[in-house]
Amino acid sequence: MTVSWKNIEAAAEAIRGGVVETPWVQSRVLSQMSGAEVGLKLENLQFTGSFKDRGALFKLLSLTPAERARGVIAMSAGNHAQAVAYHAQRLGISAVIVMPRFTPSVKTERTRGFGAEVILRGDSVAEAGTLAAEIGARRNLVFIHPYDDPRVIAGQGTIALEMLGAAPDLQILVVPIGGGGLIAGIAVAAKALRPDIEIVGVETSRFPSMLCALQEKEPRFGLFSIADGIAVKSAGRFTLPIVRKQVDEILLVDEADIEQAVLLLLEVEKTVAEGAGAAGLAALLRYPERFSRRKVGLVISGGNIDLPILSSIIQRGLVRSARLVRLVLRMRDAPGELAKAAKCIGDMGANVVQVSHQRIFTELPVQATEVVFVLQTRGPDHLEAVVDALEKEGYRVSIQGVQQD
């Protein structure tokens, strides 16, 4: 089976009512920031939190009665697992999901909650995939690949139908790339409707598998990425030819770009995106000249981010924007000095989060001490005013941890 416009039309008809027709939202703030006219397709609002619902459901619906009776197996670190488990449960199909053993417990428990048998093996999705193939062959299960399957690709392509239905004058679609199932489906559908539309893919610089495959280069990978949903080491045999033919460009983004995008979506659009889901916005902000004055559609592909990671992104973002800072004050080791410094900070409207007082492990003279204040401020200008006030009081002040974007 190839992936064609007719396949995607069939997928749209088949999954209608079984998945969410997710919102299309115009973003004034992101448009102002980027110089483009920006709209967001919020696939993070699917029931299982990602676009994977579409392809998983269309694949499951295509199974014969005999295949349904056999049951299915999939490998995944999260989104595909939940999508297959949820829709298999809805359709009365037994499902086995092999997940890497270090998959966060929240993802494994959600998958079990949909009635799937979860097996934790291997240190990566690739290792989990090898085991899934072995188990599938031994137990005669139908394998549901996360991206390299024509019906899965066709299901993901239904996103483009909805985007161009809501905004038919879009000029560029920006899509995250892992194995390529999402962008392949979107590209086939979008180019069929609008041959002049541009399709731009986004990979992380740590996992540039598709770009390297297109350039016929040997890829070099990082150990991990905050965008784990697109941290894939090989392009699919079905997806690669489609991407080569239909995708106009692939851009690379770094981890800091993705962190910034996750935080912006949370703060500006009040929507939670996982790292992979924010990759399109990361590219828009890193390469503004590429999209300036164009009508751009971003696919926010998923929102299944672990809370500890989200918390770290928020805290690191506050540091980058100088809203959370660490000041080191050198002062006399005398009664009242700490209170005097704290009062000065309070009078300037900064909030003290933490104080640590260092007397012993220091090279300062015996009658001097070092005090570290962690403060909440309103941003760089407010921080500068606080530091000026402290220095006028005679304190030597240094700022630690502030990173300017």
Mean pLDDT: 93
Contiguous runs where pLDDT drops below 50 for at least 5 residues: none
CATH architecture of the largest domain: 3-Layer(aba) Sandwich
Secondary structure tally: strands: 14
Rounded to an integer in angstroms, the radius of gyration calculated over CA atoms is 25 Å
Strand-residue proportion: 15-25%
CATH topology of the largest domain, what is it called?
Rossmann fold
User: In terms of structural class, how would the helical and strand content be classed?
Assistant: alpha/beta
The number of distinct helices, counting runs of at least 4 residues, comes to 17
- Count of domains: 3
Q: Tell me the helix content.
A: 40-55%
What is the CATH class designation of the largest domain? Alpha Beta
Q: What is the first-to-last residue Cα distance?
A: 47 Å
Largest sheet: 6 strands, mixed
Q: What strand line-up does the widest sheet have? A: 1-2-10-7-8-9
Shape: elongated
